[in-house]
């Protein structure tokens, strides 16, 4: 995972790179992992619903972002969905 300020470059299964914007990150003591929620840049240019992706990662020794890994359990997905809903509610309150 390469990153800029709020962007990361994701490489898919076919080796294609896609620039994505980070929505937010959070840590979970329960699972001992960090999570990042992101979406492809350009996805917000139209009126369609944005597909938000989520991955787990473990920061390396220099506290830089490590490799993205898939979410493995339903419990993790439940936590991510709860965090996303909280984030979206907070965004709605600011508008």
UniProtKB/TrEMBL annotation:
Q: Which HAMAP family match?
A: UPF0473
Query: Tell me, what's a Pfam family for it?
Result: DUF1292
Annotated signal sequence range: none
The entry sums up its family as follows: Belongs to the UPF0473 family.
Superkingdom as given in the UniProt entry: Bacteria
Q: Which organism is it from?
A: Niallia oryzisoli
Q: Which InterPro entries match?
A: UPF0473
What protein is this chain from?
A: UPF0473 protein R4Z09_06515
């Amino acid at each position: 995972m390469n990153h800029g300020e709020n962007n990361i470059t994701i490489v898919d299964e076919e080796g294609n790179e896609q620039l994505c914007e980070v929505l937010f990150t959070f840590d979970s003591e329960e699972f001992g992992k960090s999570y990042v929620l992101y979406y492809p840049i350009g996805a917000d240019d139209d009126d369609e619903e944005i597909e938000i992706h989520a991955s787990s990662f473990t920061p390396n020794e220099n506290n830089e972002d490590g490799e993205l890994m898939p979410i493995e359990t339903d419990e993790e997905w439940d936590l991510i969905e709860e965090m996303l809903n909280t984030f979206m509610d907070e965004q709605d309150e600011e508008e």
